[in-house]
Write a structure and sequence with these properties.
heterotrimer, A alpha+beta, B alpha/beta, C alpha+beta, B: Elongation Factor Tu (Ef-tu), domain 3, Rossmann fold, 31% strand, C: four-stranded antiparallel sheet, four-stranded antiparallel sheet, globular
């Protein structure tokens, strides 16, 4: 990052200015807030609404938030929420069709009046948005609703200074510091004074930088930021050979592990809801009848999040194809790690660890994949090339 | 992040059903009906053999149906079996009713592969419907030899009797078999796979469509007689829910069947079909 | 039976799929215990319960294996075509015919005397082996077909 495209801002007043200025130029600003003991993404009107002093503790089946004395702004890792809730809402109207003259007329909802500005997006989340872009925008028939919400999104990313125990992004093409997909990148620095390094990643970002109070970043600031990233990488040992997973999982369909994990899996679908790349959905038509209730006059087609763990997600002739939990868990894991790249040309998993954290049975997708491909996934166990 | 170019123009949303009028209803069997449609104004792109559309009944819902005939000026026919709420509503449509359709979607039977070659077509039950336009094209010339094996449950469940006669008259070797019949039935009684096994000749290309178990056994029988697995094509479906690769529900392994199917090459799916609950 | 007729039968046996690749000496033996058998359409080659005297190698026409349950119309559950054989219950403990066998067209078959054949098998292990493996294949094909018909695939297809 060249020095002209980086500044140092105050962790309090700088973020205040960031949120204020984005709103002033017409963005709907969405960022992390603390709500009922969790960190969720919500509309924010001021930088003071963003978390201060939050520290999170994650493990398979566990997520805890505590407030620390230190006024850190990004010393936490994301919760169950992901940005997909704003780009592909859990429930949305896609079409409204009204009877007219022996036929019908149809309307699609207008795109949002304000583009989104996302505050505090992590590298895994940016890669997840890129995956959704590939699935929903690069399709032969682009998703109109997604396209409308995705227009002109302004992304303020943040470096992860404190990865969680369930993060494993470095195994699958990611890392604590985002390199693509953002307009501005924040890195929280402590050594030499608590401050935020802001770096531009686009023309829009460079232009916006001028609106923020603060000073130019120096070499010392950049070196300090590099150290933050290095320390974070130490917390992210490689656990799986991410890019080889499709080939390694290819022969696993009748592995006994599927039945074993099915003993624990509740088929609750939490993993698919918290996963930032899961896009499966269901459409239904809700009909409004005439006043006397005799005939339909209007149909509203809605799209809802769906999950491959639902029994009727796959069916043939009205009966489920994946009738057992083992077959549905296999669909989930093999889609995410094996077949997604063949379908869309990008990985389906970004290594964020949410599915592991939010699984009530504490099932760890990394460990399951490791068993299926026959490697040891414990940190320090070595790379696959070193295995016999 | 910058601007995403070209947001979709309002009104051209790919989920919008295009109005079509029912112009004819032909009862094929006790629960199967063929509806012929004409566009009200906007026409769909003509379906290639094997493609499907999403047909919509106002106030009821949408289902995927293979196109069983293509006419001039955007007209087409759908052959539908009544099994649920939407298909029952479709099957109850009368001439003059307006239904919605969007598409066509999916892959097509590779008719070009059949030129000057020995072709085997195996159709089981309702599987004859997605093959009908393919057989029409093939019977018109192209293959050196064309054999059509049709399997059904009972004689009165055999579809398109008039077409079968017409194809026979055009020189197609049409062999019909049912699961059970009275002794008055002049076709065979037994599985379509048995008929294929009895043909005693290798074919260059095979198109197979019907219940998955039937497609599996018939494809294996054709391959056992010498057909190259890379020249056997089957039609697979899962829950074609949106038809446009957005909802993720039609997946079979790495295939999104609304986009990469329904017509797929046998050797690409043979392992997937062996896995239970895939 | 005169020599010309035996010669016809011997040739027909050699050309019949069921006996394909059988040692010519066995075919000579079989020809001695075979005769031509003609059946008009709708006549029976055998009825359920009949004593097993012969089994039939179908040469032309189609034969239906028919099941009749009281109060229900007879149903053909399998068609046997030229090149195939009908009747194998005789081989397993000389059991009587299990089903009705009706000629669907005018049928010509080679009827083979099962008692003579079983005696010949007693004298020749090799002939016994050849007949056993061929009948086993027939039974396997019928079973495979029957199982697929049983699951009523078309009752729940797309």
């Amino acid at each position: 990052m060249s020095r002209d495209r980086s500044r140092i801002i105050d962790p309090q007043t700088g973020l205040d200015a960031l949120v204020r200025e984005l709103a002033a130029i017409g963005y709907r600003v969405v960022g992390p807030v603390v709500s009922e003991g969790a960190i969720v993404y919500d509309d924010v009107t001021s930088g003071s609404e963003l978390p201060t002093g939050c520290v999170t503790d994650q493990a398979p089946g566990r997520w805890r938030l505590r407030i620390d004395d230190e006024p850190t702004r990004f010393g936490w890792t994301p919760g169950a929420d992901s940005w997909k809730r704003f780009l592909t809402p859990a429930h949305q109207e896609v079409l409204r069709i009204r009877r007219h003259d022996g036929s019908w007329v149809s309307e699609t909802p207008p795109p949002p009046d304000r583009p989104l500005a996302l505050i505090g997006a992590r590298d895994c989340e940016l890669r997840a948005i890129a995956v959704l872009d590939r699935v929903l925008l690069d399709a032969d028939q682009p998703d109109a609703q997604y396209a409308g919400r995705r227009r002109e999104t302004f992304v303020v990313a943040t470096t992860c200074g404190v990865p969680s125990a369930t993060c494993w992004c470095t195994s699958i093409g990611g890392g604590p510091q985002p390199h693509h997909g953002f307009d501005l990148r924040l890195t929280e620095l402590h050594e030499g004074g608590h401050r935020l390094l802001v770096e531009s990643g686009s023309e829009a970002g460079t232009e916006f930088l001028g609106r923020l109070p603060g000073r130019l970043a120096t070499d010392v600031d950049h070196v300090t930021a590099d150290a933050v990233v290095e320390r974070a990488v130490e917390h992210l040992p490689l656990r799986l050979p991410g890019s080889d997973l499709p080939a390694l999982l290819a022969g696993s369909a009748s592995h006994p592990r599927w039945e074993q994990v099915a003993q624990r899996c509740l088929s609750c679908g939490n993993c698919t809801m918290v996963c930032p790349t899961c896009f499966c959905s269901t459409f239904d038509d809700a009909t409004v009848l005439t006043d006397d209730g005799t005939a339909p006059v209007e149909t509203v087609r809605r799209q809802h999040w769906a999950s491959c763990f639902e029994l009727d997600h796959s069916n043939l002739g009205g009966r489920p194809v994946r009738a057992t939990i083992a077959s549905r868990y296999r669909q989930w894991l093999t889609h995410k790690l094996e077949t997604w790249p063949a379908q869309f040309g990008v990985t389906g998993c970004v290594g964020c660890g949410r599915c592991t954290t939010w699984c009530p049975a504490a099932i760890d997708i990394v460990h399951e994949a490791a068993v299926l491909i026959g490697v040891d996934d414990r940190p320090g166990a070595g790379r696959r090339e070193e295995q016999p | 992040m910058g601007t995403i170019a070209d947001p979709v123009v309002a009104g051209s949303d790919p989920l919008t059903p295009v109005p079509h009028r029912v112009v004819a209803v032909d009862v094929e069997t006790s629960d199967v009906v063929t509806l012929t449609f004409d566009p009200l104004s906007e026409a769909l792109v003509p379906a290639r053999p094997g493609q499907f559309v999403m047909v919509w009944v106002f106030g009821v819902g949408e289902i995927p149906v293979s196109v069983s005939n293509v006419e001039d000026a955007g007209g087409f026919a759908l052959t539908v079996r009544a099994v649920g709420a939407v298909s029952n509503a479709v099957v109850s449509a009368r001439p003059g009713d307006t239904l919605g359709a969007r598409g066509p979607y999916g892959t097509a039977w590779p008719i070009a592969d059949a030129k000057d070659r020995d072709v085997l077509v195996v159709a089981g039950g309702l599987g004859l419907a997605p093959l009908r336009t393919a057989i029409d094209e093939l019977a018109d010339g192209g293959p050196r030899r064309l054999t059509l094996v049709v399997g059904a449950r009972e004689p009165d469940q055999v579809l398109f009797a008039a077409d079968l006669r017409r194809w026979r008259d055009l020189g197609v070797d049409v062999q019909i078999t049912v699961d059970a019949a009275s002794s008055r039935w002049d076709g065979a009684v037994g599985t379509a796979t048995d008929v294929v096994a009895r043909l005693g000749a290798a074919h260059d290309v095979a198109f197979v469509c019907g219940p998955e178990l039937m497609m599996t056994t018939a494809s294996r029988a054709a391959i056992a007689q010498g057909t190259d697995p890379a020249n056997v094509w089957v039609s697979l479906e899962r829950n074609m829910h949106c038809g446009i690769a957005h909802c993720g529900r039609c997946q079979l392994g790495a295939l999104l069947l609304c986009r990469d199917g329904a017509v797929v090459r046998w050797d690409r799916v043979v392992e997937l079909l062996r896995e239970r609950g895939r | 039976m005169n020599d010309t007729r035996i010669g016809d039968i011997r040739r027909a046996l050699g050309e019949h799929d069921f006996f394909a690749a059988m040692d010519p000496r066995h075919l000579d033996t079989l020809a001695e215990m075979s005769r031509w058998s003609d059946h008009a359409a709708s006549s029976w080659l055998a009825c359920a319960g009949d004593a097993p005297d012969s089994f039939h190698a179908i040469v032309s026409g189609r034969v239906g294996i028919e099941v009749t349950a009281t109060g229900r119309a007879p149903l053909v559950v399998a068609t046997v075509h030229a090149g195939d054989v009908v009747g194998w219950s005789w081989f397993i403990g000389r059991q009587p015919w299990q089903f009705d066998v009706v000629a669907l067209d005018d049928v010509r078959s080679i009827a083979i005397d099962v008692n003579a054949l079983l005696d010949a098998c007693d004298r020749s292990d090799d002939l016994r082996y050849e007949i056993t493996t061929r009948l086993l294949r027939v039974v396997a094909d019928r079973l495979r077909g029957a199982r697929l018909q049983l699951v009523d695939l078309y009752g729940h297809d797309r």
